[in-house]
């Protein structure tokens, strides 16, 4: 298929939507499809050859913060030219409710259109009068995809109708190989955690209580914590003797994150709830980490009922300490889990997710019997 | 001789009293004018929001620009009702920036040339923006003079400002789209 993808945000700036589009586009290209991504980007920076840049995005206040977006007549002309020259079988617009190339593409295109909504937002954001403009753009969408249940609710509220839920994939090949951070995991063993420290449902508090037990038994054991939040708050929850053995990396780049996942003996997902899929856990699995996770349904499923990673009783720090302790003492079991995790996470790889997205494309194209053109 | 000193003392008291009450009257007038200038500024801001909203919902702009402007207008309306001046200043500045970003897009004016009514709408926004610029200049000017008058030792000694609230400057980005 010839697929045109519209990206709302600057390609040069790291972000969830951009990586989603990059991984999807590359998975589709791997399957032999023709993919062209239109995105705001500087023409003079090196870009993958499937990206068509429209020039730098302009920083502009939107929804209470400053976003880098593309809008205006020149952007519209570029989108039109891209649509005309691309002769796509399907147009896939990401985040079409943001003032961006995606909205412009929906507005300017005719033919089969698929849209993916990434983030949830309140309805109040769109005024009634512009809903006229918005509606004429968004009503053309034939197939809607939401990456999360919250995003799906947003879509349904804005546009009525329904959306297919297709969660993010994991680009497992990006996680497979990396060298550990210098000095890690070290002799005494390391337990890793990745996520917002101040979000209670991520469960850092449970892990810290378990570390209080484990740390006293094992003098060399360390904790490696990656993610935003205040280290002082987390340290304060530990007895003074253990505080030096917790290390905080804060927010890290994509590469550092992969390195961190390779720097631990055990990766812990102590989430106490709210995790619909557990992308972080899946990424750690792709890195071949031995996983210890709470026994939420989502984790039980991803970890194949405990064969691709150990489970502990949700919220039970003593149980976590017991399970993690046994695993720290058993390198053979860790190696076994690592292999099983890499195997299990294949089901969540982008190549699998891309197949689902493709079937949405095919369904939509089937009904329209025309390729994408420029609306008159 | 004693009579002479009494007369002088009475004169001094009377002159001082007249002077003080004249200063008090001036300060009072300044406060009133501050209120007036503030009303003018509020009106100018509301007018600008309305003009921007009219342009955004006219269907003459591309949908991305429309949405951008409508979002900025919505935020000024939400924050206009609130007491927090800082949020309001921020929202109004954001509308200025959104308008500037939209109006300085390459080919923005060219793309509107052949559309009926577009010129009037754009001109309406520009006129309203100029009014905001002027109204804020005048308001801040009178606020500065009032604050200065309140600071005088005499005004402080006799508490001439009374219960009148201390006026505050209105700070925002109001640079016009074309400058």
Give a verbal description of the structure.
The complex is a heterodimer of chains A (376) and B (179). Chain A has 376 residues and is an alpha/beta fold. Chain A contains 14 helices and 17 strands. In chain A, the strands form four sheets. Chain A has a seven-stranded parallel sheet, sandwiched between helices. In chain A, helix 1 (16-30) crosses helix 14, helix 2 (72-86) packs across helix 3 (101-108) and helix 7 (204-217) packs across helix 12. The mean pLDDT of chain A is 87. The N and C termini of chain B lie far apart (72 Å). The longest helix of chain B is centred in the first third of the chain and has 55 residues, at 2-56. Chain B has 179 residues and is mainly α. In chain B, helix 1 (2-56) runs antiparallel to helix 2 (63-80), helix 1 (2-56) runs antiparallel to helix 5 (118-151) and helix 2 (63-80) packs antiparallel against helix 3. Chain B has one domain (23-157). The chains are: A alpha/beta (376), B mainly alpha (179).
């Amino acid at each position: 298929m010839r697929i045109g993808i519209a990206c709302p945000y600057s390609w040069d700036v790291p972000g969830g939507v951009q990586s989603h589009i990059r991984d999807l586009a590359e998975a589709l290209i791997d399957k032999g499809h023709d993919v062209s991504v239109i995105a705001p980007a500087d023409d003079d920076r090196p870009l993958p050859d499937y990206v068509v840049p429209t020039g730098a995005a302009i920083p502009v206040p939107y929804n209470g913060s400053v976003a880098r977006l593309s809008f205006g007549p020149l952007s519209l002309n570029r989108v039109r030219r891209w649509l005309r020259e691309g002769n796509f079988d399907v147009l896939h617009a990401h985040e079409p409710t943001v003032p961006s190339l995606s909205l412009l593409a929906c507005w300017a295109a005719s033919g089969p259109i698929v849209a993916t909504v990434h983030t949830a937002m309140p309805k109040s954001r769109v005024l009634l009068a512009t809903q006229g403009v918005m509606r004429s753009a968004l009503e053309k969408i034939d197939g809607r995809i939401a990456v999360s249940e919250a995003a799906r609710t947003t879509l349904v509220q804005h546009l009525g109708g329904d959306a297919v839920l297709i969660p993010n994939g994991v680009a497992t090949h990006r996680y497979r190989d990396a060298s550990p951070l210098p000095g890690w995991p070290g002799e005494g063993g390391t337990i890793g955690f990745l996520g917002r420290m101040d979000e209670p449902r991520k469960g850092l508090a449970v892990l810290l209580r378990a570390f209080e037990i484990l740390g006293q038994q094992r003098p060399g054991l360390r904790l490696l914590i990656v993610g935003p939040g205040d280290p002082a708050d987390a340290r304060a929850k530990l007895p003074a003797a253990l505080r030096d053995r917790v290390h905080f990396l804060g927010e890290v780049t994509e590469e550092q994150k992969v390195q961190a996942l390779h720097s631990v003996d055990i990766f812990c997902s102590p989430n106490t709830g709210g995790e619909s899929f557990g992308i972080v856990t899946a990424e750690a699995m792709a890195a071949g980490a031995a996983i210890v996770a709470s026994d939420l349904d989502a984790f039980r499923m991803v970890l194949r009922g405990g064969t691709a990673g150990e489970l502990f009783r949700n919220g039970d720090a003593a149980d976590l300490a017991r399970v993690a302790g046994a695993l720290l003492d058993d390198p053979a079991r860790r190696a076994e889990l690592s292999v099983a995790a890499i195997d299990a996470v294949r089901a969540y790889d982008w190549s699998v997710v891309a197949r689902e997205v493709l079937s949405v494309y095919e369904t939509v194209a089937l009904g329209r019997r025309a390729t994408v053109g420029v609306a008159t | 001789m004693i009579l002479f000193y009494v007369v002088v003392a009475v004169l001094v008291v009377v002159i001082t009293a007249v002077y003080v009450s004249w200063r008090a009257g001036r300060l009072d007038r300044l406060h009133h004018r501050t209120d007036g200038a503030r009303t003018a500024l509020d009106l100018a801001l509301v007018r600008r929001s309305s003009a921007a909203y009219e342009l955004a919902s006219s269907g003459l702009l591309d949908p991305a620009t429309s949405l951008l402007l409508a979002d900025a207008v919505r935020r000024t309306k939400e924050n206009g009702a609130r007491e927090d001046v800082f949020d309001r200043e921020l929202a109004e500045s954001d509308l200025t920036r959104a308008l500037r970003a939209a109006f300085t897009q390459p080919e923005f004016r060219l793309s509107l040339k052949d559309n009926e009514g577009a010129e009037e709408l754009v001109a309406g926004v520009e006129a309203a923006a100029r009014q905001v610029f002027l109204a804020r200049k005048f308001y801040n000017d009178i606020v500065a003079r009032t604050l200065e008058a309140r600071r005088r030792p005499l005004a402080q000694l006799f508490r001439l400002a009374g219960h009148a609230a201390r006026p505050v400057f209105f700070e925002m980005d109001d640079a016009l789209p074309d400058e």
